[in-house]
Amino acid sequence: MSSDATTLPPKFVIVTLPRSGSYHLVSLLNSAPDIVCHGEVFKRDTIELAAPHLAKLGLAPGDVAERDAKAAQFLKRLRAQNGRKVFGFKMFMEHATRVPALAQVLKDPEWRKVVLRRNPVESYASLLRAQRTGIWMLKREAAGTAPRERLDAPVTFDAGSYAEHMRMCEWFDRQVDDATGGPGNAALVLDYREVVDRSALARVLSFVGSSAAAAALTSDREKQFSRPFAEGFTNWGELAAHARAQGHGAFLDAAA
After folding, report:
1. Is the C-alpha dihedral spanning 211, 213, 219, 224 positive or negative?
2. CA torsion angle for 38, 40, 46, 49 (degrees, to 10)?
3. Taking the C-alpha atoms of 54, 58, 61 and 64 in order, what is their torsion angle to the nearest 10 degrees?
């Protein structure tokens, strides 16, 4: 990818897995006056952009083949829409396996990487809950339309889905370490719980090149599950026993 580091503000990418708080982080960063941070613009089946951005690109939400075929150009044109601001977007490692240009983004030192991680036992519970409710993110303005009893209803642990999720988390860690391990390719690792920590957000802002104040950041996203972690399962005892047998006791003890 051609260098533009001397003519434009910095650019960054949030690299993460589903159910790790990335929508909340994107919303917070996007509220900074000198940042434009987009969401999952390389989603498999749609281009996750607001209508005005798509119109300027001459694309419709379903034009994913054209987006993927010209991914570097797509990002360059999207960035140019707000050329005086720090530019960012979020991606999953799965995107890089489909779109070669995104693998290049991860290896390019000009792209600053914010690696957002979450306790895999927590993200497993959140994934089960999203699959059951069909609610993958909750905007504050729509929070009242989703009854609390629906959002907080417990899910059921299954050994097969748990093993699949843990394999995905381990794969993510390996892929991120490999992709960002080159010389000068700095990455800032952020934990899910630090997304609500203003001192941690201040580090993120500094890392991506923003002069915004962390205390002023706001988000339009709501936390979906509000009960104690163990109450989120119909069969908590089975999950706890299985996780400890798999050597995941530390994840279990840290879950909240």
Report:
1. positive
2. -10
3. -120
Residue 114: which CATH number? 3.40.50
> Which position has the token pair 């829409």?
81
Give the structural domain span for 233: 11-254
For the chain, give the longest Cα–Cα distance. Answer: 57
CA dist 229 → 51, 146, 149, 155 (Å)? 38, 20, 15, 11
**Which helix (DSSP H) or strand (DSSP E) does residue 166 occupy?**
helix 159-179
**Alpha-carbon distance 118 to 14, whole Å?**
13
pLDDT tens sequence for the chain (256 residues): 445 656 889 999 999 999 999 999 999 999 999 999 999 999 999 999 999 999 999 999 999 999 999 999 999 999 999 999 999 999 999 999 999 999 999 999 999 999 999 999 999 999 999 999 998 888 887 667 778 888 999 999 999 999 999 999 999 999 999 888 888 898 999 999 999 999 999 999 999 999 999 999 999 998 889 999 999 999 999 999 999 999 999 999 999 7
The answer to whether residue 2 is domain-embedded is no
Domain count, the chain: 1
Residue 1 domain flag: no
The reported pTM is 0.93
Residue 153: exposure state from Cβ atoms within 10 A (0-12, 13-18, ≥19): middle
Task: State the burial class of residue 201 (Cβ atoms within 10 Å of its Cβ: 0-12, 13-18, 19+).
Answer: buried
